[in-house]
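One-letter codes give the sequence; each number marks local geometry. A record appears below:


***
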Amino acid sequence: MRALFKENIIEALIGAGVLLLAIWFVTFAYDRTQRGGVSDGYTISARFPNTSGVSVGTDVRVSGLKVGTVADEMLDTTTYQAVLKLTIDSAVKLPLDTSAAITSEGILGGNYISLAPGGDPEMLREGDEITDTQGAVDMMGLIGSVINQSGGASEDADAPAEEAGPAQ
């Protein structure tokens, strides 16, 4: 066995390097996805009429910077609104009148929850709810309405055409 190892030491070192790289990659991916959510934070909720493109693990951002994640989502069976539980980093204190909107990163990007802090001196605490929310925009419906109205029809298209006078 020793003779085999001495003859193939380069292959053994490359194999060990690949194994270490794989372990590092799995650790890195686990940390980046934050499967456990924000470890040191508080949970608040927000109700939205439409949460298309949002799921557990979606970013929660303030001024474009990630401050938390969506921890849970459920349907309120009395109002038929989606209720999202948001876990916010404990270092971030949000005013009581903070608003939340589901925003897109771009035409091809994913959605995230954008928080806009208000000016209330009292801060949100564990279990509080954000009441000022805006749901996701239906991009396909918006694009369809633009396409359907781009036929070049004028406002008086329904008016009868005037008779042309004699040519001069």
